[in-house]
Amino acid sequence: MKKNNQEFYKTWRLGFKYVLIVMLAVTAFRTLVSFMTGNGDSITLSSILLGILFLVVGTGLLTLFIAWYSTRGK
């Protein structure tokens, strides 16, 4: 592998890990607040799993663009 590719993958993994942790924490907090205020009646397991799927895919794409942008000129 080229050095640029190695740097890209390293940047992507690092960014993905931290952005995913933050996004999962925000989602968990939002879900907790929904249950505490009584608006959690409509939350189902399938909606939670679909939300997590969107979260992971979206975070992956976001960090892909961030890693690409940060390593494109090197």
H/E series: HH
What percent of residues adopt helix (DSSP H or I)? over 70%
Overall strand count:
0
Strand content: under 5%
What's this model, at a glance?
With 74 residues, this protein is mostly helical.
Give an overview in words.
The chain contains two helices and no strands. The protein is elongated and about 50 Å long. By secondary structure, the chain is mainly alpha-helical. The two termini are about 15 Å apart. The longest helix is centred in the N-terminal third of the chain and has 34 residues, at about 5-35. This is DUF202 domain-containing protein. It comes from Rheinheimera mesophila. Keywords: Membrane, Transmembrane, Transmembrane helix.
Descriptive tags:
82% helix; single chain; 74 residues; mainly alpha; elongated
What are the SSEs and their pairings?
Blueprint lengths: L2 H34 L8 H27 L3
Protein name: DUF202 domain-containing protein
Keywords: Membrane, Transmembrane, Transmembrane helix
Organism: Rheinheimera mesophila
